[in-house]
Write a structure and sequence with these properties.
The protein is of the alpha+beta class. The chain contains eleven helices and 13 strands.
Length: 373
Amino acid sequence: MSKRMKRRDFMRNGAIAGITMAAAGNEVSGFPMILKQSTVKPLVIASANGNRFKNGGTVTAVQKAFTMMTGGSDVLDAVVAGVNIVELDPLDDSVGYGGLPNADGVVQLDSSVMHGPKKQAGAVAALEGVRTPSLVAKAVSENTDHHLIVGKGAQEFARNMGFEIEADLNTKNSREKWLEWKRRMDPDHYLNPKKRAEAGRRAALEMLAQGLLREENLHGTINCDGINSRGEICGVTTTSGLAWKIPGRIGDSPILGAGLYVDNAIGAAGSTGRGEANLFNLCSFVIIEEMRRGAHPKDAGMEVLNRIKSNTIEKRLLNSRGLPNFGINFYILNAKGEYAGVTMYEGSSFAICNENGPQTLKSEPLLQGKPSD
């Protein structure tokens, strides 16, 4: 009798376990959601400025995004609210308000967003007059049948969506730096295109060496991606682009597959650094595909860094060691909540926020030394 009882107990317990597993795999089964056990720990990952600037408040971008996300907000709403802090902070002159302008002294902004569960995306490029291009990119994804709107069309779309259009997004800081660059590189105003490009780069490097610019200013951006406990993944990238770029130049940030890519079944990847290198190699898309084949985020990131290194052959883009003379960084998470920050050269960092709070961590470099070596 005791053996039969034990067998009945075993069968009953097994049935309960089966119900629990079924409920975990089927949200519409009618069983209480408390039976669903999550295996994903919420995480937000971003470029280093995501844990630096607060726009006069008390929290950074990754803190804001993580708090909203774990409080029940949509993941995209959370990461966009996070980067809004940086876009609006005049102290960060690599994105949004006060971002370093183009060669004509005009601030032109780019941004893209991707919503993993909804399979939606939106982007804007060469947008003038709106401090938060990430919100306009989000509006593109939610209110149009398009993925990318640029220039005057992007500004008119923003106006129609109710965004305030400002005449000038320069701050005193961004305008003074532009004027200093202009004085150094174009004293005669009329140079042939080749000499002008060489002079522009030389002036920027001189200002960098003298401490007038930070390294990230030259290719300033913020990328922020998040995954919640339900495994929902979203991402955003926003930038003022290459400092003193040719007016109308578009980098990688608003291009899906380059500056940002999200596949909810696989993960998310975003980038900062030299946009042209990322555009040529469509690195964020490649990272996702590497992870689809089973690669860890770090290994997927190293694969694309090696690809960039191999494809960089123009002499003007190589240093004395025959290696790329520029930096580029990737911020990666997968559907398990694993993550990595990788960089072309040592010295870069990235930000995360999880249950232990916001942290700034060292990125894993492909190469030692500096781009200028």
